[in-house]
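Propose amino acids for all 159 sites.
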Protein backbone atom coordinates (compact mmCIF):
# COMPACT_ATOMS: atom_id res chain seq x y z
CA UNK A 1 0.00 0.00 0.00
CA UNK A 2 1.28 3.45 -0.87
CA UNK A 3 0.92 5.96 1.93
CA UNK A 4 1.59 9.58 1.06
CA UNK A 5 3.83 11.49 3.39
CA UNK A 6 2.64 14.74 1.81
CA UNK A 7 -1.06 14.52 0.88
CA UNK A 8 -0.70 17.38 -1.59
CA UNK A 9 1.87 15.38 -3.56
CA UNK A 10 4.23 18.34 -3.66
CA UNK A 11 7.16 19.76 -1.71
CA UNK A 12 6.28 22.71 0.45
CA UNK A 13 2.67 21.70 1.06
CA UNK A 14 1.07 23.90 -1.63
CA UNK A 15 -1.18 22.09 -4.08
CA UNK A 16 -0.14 22.39 -7.72
CA UNK A 17 -2.94 22.68 -10.25
CA UNK A 18 -0.94 21.65 -13.31
CA UNK A 19 1.64 19.09 -14.27
CA UNK A 20 5.00 20.85 -14.10
CA UNK A 21 8.50 20.05 -12.94
CA UNK A 22 8.86 20.10 -9.18
CA UNK A 23 5.67 18.18 -8.43
CA UNK A 24 6.68 15.41 -6.01
CA UNK A 25 5.26 12.48 -4.14
CA UNK A 26 6.32 9.89 -1.64
CA UNK A 27 5.17 6.47 -0.54
CA UNK A 28 5.97 3.78 2.02
CA UNK A 29 5.57 0.03 1.68
CA UNK A 30 6.06 -2.64 4.36
CA UNK A 31 7.77 -5.68 2.84
CA UNK A 32 5.84 -8.90 3.41
CA UNK A 33 6.37 -12.40 2.03
CA UNK A 34 3.99 -11.77 -0.87
CA UNK A 35 6.30 -9.03 -2.18
CA UNK A 36 9.39 -11.24 -2.39
CA UNK A 37 11.04 -12.72 -5.47
CA UNK A 38 9.59 -16.27 -5.07
CA UNK A 39 6.11 -14.74 -4.88
CA UNK A 40 6.27 -12.86 -8.20
CA UNK A 41 3.95 -15.28 -10.00
CA UNK A 42 3.38 -19.01 -10.20
CA UNK A 43 3.59 -18.85 -14.01
CA UNK A 44 7.23 -17.77 -13.72
CA UNK A 45 8.73 -20.82 -12.06
CA UNK A 46 12.34 -19.60 -12.41
CA UNK A 47 11.73 -17.36 -9.39
CA UNK A 48 10.58 -20.17 -7.08
CA UNK A 49 13.95 -20.89 -5.44
CA UNK A 50 15.22 -17.29 -5.34
CA UNK A 51 15.97 -15.42 -2.09
CA UNK A 52 13.00 -14.09 -0.10
CA UNK A 53 13.79 -10.40 -0.59
CA UNK A 54 11.80 -7.52 -2.08
CA UNK A 55 11.32 -8.34 -5.76
CA UNK A 56 12.44 -5.90 -8.45
CA UNK A 57 9.08 -6.47 -10.18
CA UNK A 58 7.26 -5.19 -7.09
CA UNK A 59 9.77 -2.33 -6.68
CA UNK A 60 8.87 -1.16 -10.18
CA UNK A 61 5.15 -1.44 -9.38
CA UNK A 62 5.67 0.53 -6.14
CA UNK A 63 7.50 3.29 -8.03
CA UNK A 64 4.72 3.41 -10.62
CA UNK A 65 2.05 3.59 -7.92
CA UNK A 66 3.90 6.43 -6.20
CA UNK A 67 4.10 8.38 -9.47
CA UNK A 68 0.40 7.74 -10.20
CA UNK A 69 -0.60 9.03 -6.77
CA UNK A 70 1.69 12.06 -7.07
CA UNK A 71 0.00 13.31 -10.25
CA UNK A 72 -3.58 12.17 -9.56
CA UNK A 73 -4.66 15.41 -7.83
CA UNK A 74 -3.72 17.53 -10.87
CA UNK A 75 -5.05 15.33 -13.69
CA UNK A 76 -8.40 16.38 -15.16
CA UNK A 77 -11.34 14.00 -14.81
CA UNK A 78 -11.15 11.19 -17.36
CA UNK A 79 -7.37 11.31 -17.64
CA UNK A 80 -4.90 8.82 -16.22
CA UNK A 81 -1.35 7.83 -16.99
CA UNK A 82 0.41 4.71 -18.22
CA UNK A 83 4.00 3.69 -17.63
CA UNK A 84 6.11 3.73 -20.78
CA UNK A 85 9.74 3.57 -19.66
CA UNK A 86 11.56 2.30 -16.58
CA UNK A 87 15.25 2.96 -15.92
CA UNK A 88 15.82 1.91 -12.30
CA UNK A 89 18.86 0.39 -10.64
CA UNK A 90 17.90 -1.96 -7.80
CA UNK A 91 21.14 -1.73 -5.82
CA UNK A 92 20.45 -3.41 -2.46
CA UNK A 93 18.31 -6.29 -1.18
CA UNK A 94 15.50 -5.62 1.30
CA UNK A 95 14.42 -8.41 3.65
CA UNK A 96 10.88 -9.15 4.85
CA UNK A 97 9.82 -6.84 7.67
CA UNK A 98 11.58 -3.69 6.52
CA UNK A 99 9.77 -0.66 5.12
CA UNK A 100 10.67 0.82 1.74
CA UNK A 101 10.13 4.50 1.05
CA UNK A 102 9.99 6.04 -2.41
CA UNK A 103 10.45 9.65 -3.40
CA UNK A 104 9.50 10.73 -6.90
CA UNK A 105 9.86 14.13 -8.52
CA UNK A 106 8.47 15.19 -11.86
CA UNK A 107 11.50 16.63 -13.66
CA UNK A 108 10.25 16.99 -17.24
CA UNK A 109 6.93 17.49 -19.01
CA UNK A 110 7.01 17.14 -22.81
CA UNK A 111 3.49 17.12 -24.19
CA UNK A 112 1.85 14.05 -22.63
CA UNK A 113 5.20 12.53 -21.55
CA UNK A 114 6.15 12.85 -17.89
CA UNK A 115 9.66 12.03 -16.63
CA UNK A 116 10.27 11.37 -12.92
CA UNK A 117 13.47 11.14 -10.88
CA UNK A 118 13.17 8.24 -8.42
CA UNK A 119 14.95 7.23 -5.22
CA UNK A 120 13.98 4.43 -2.83
CA UNK A 121 15.40 3.52 0.57
CA UNK A 122 14.73 0.71 3.01
CA UNK A 123 15.31 1.04 6.75
CA UNK A 124 19.10 1.07 6.28
CA UNK A 125 20.12 1.56 2.63
CA UNK A 126 19.52 3.30 -0.65
CA UNK A 127 17.96 0.46 -2.66
CA UNK A 128 16.97 2.13 -5.92
CA UNK A 129 17.61 5.17 -8.05
CA UNK A 130 16.74 6.10 -11.58
CA UNK A 131 13.99 7.47 -13.76
CA UNK A 132 10.47 6.52 -14.77
CA UNK A 133 8.35 7.86 -17.62
CA UNK A 134 4.59 7.93 -17.91
CA UNK A 135 2.23 9.26 -20.59
CA UNK A 136 -1.04 11.01 -19.81
CA UNK A 137 -3.98 9.31 -21.51
CA UNK A 138 -7.67 9.89 -22.02
CA UNK A 139 -8.91 6.78 -20.23
CA UNK A 140 -12.06 6.20 -22.32
CA UNK A 141 -10.19 6.54 -25.63
CA UNK A 142 -7.38 4.31 -24.39
CA UNK A 143 -9.83 1.60 -23.26
CA UNK A 144 -11.67 1.79 -26.60
CA UNK A 145 -8.39 1.25 -28.48
CA UNK A 146 -7.52 -1.74 -26.29
CA UNK A 147 -10.94 -3.32 -26.87
CA UNK A 148 -10.61 -2.73 -30.64
CA UNK A 149 -7.13 -4.26 -30.66
CA UNK A 150 -8.29 -7.30 -28.70
CA UNK A 151 -11.29 -7.81 -31.00
CA UNK A 152 -9.08 -7.54 -34.10
CA UNK A 153 -6.83 -10.26 -32.73
CA UNK A 154 -9.76 -12.53 -31.86
CA UNK A 155 -9.14 -12.02 -28.14
CA UNK A 156 -12.17 -10.54 -26.43
CA UNK A 157 -11.02 -11.17 -22.84
CA UNK A 158 -10.21 -7.48 -22.25
CA UNK A 159 -13.82 -6.30 -22.35
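Proposal:
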Amino acid sequence: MVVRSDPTGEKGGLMQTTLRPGLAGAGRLKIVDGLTVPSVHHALSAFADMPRVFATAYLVAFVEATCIEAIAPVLPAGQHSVGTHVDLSHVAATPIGMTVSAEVELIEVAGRRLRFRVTCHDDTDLICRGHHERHVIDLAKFNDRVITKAAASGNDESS
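The first strand starts at residue 24 and ends at 30. DSSP finds two helices and five strands in the chain.
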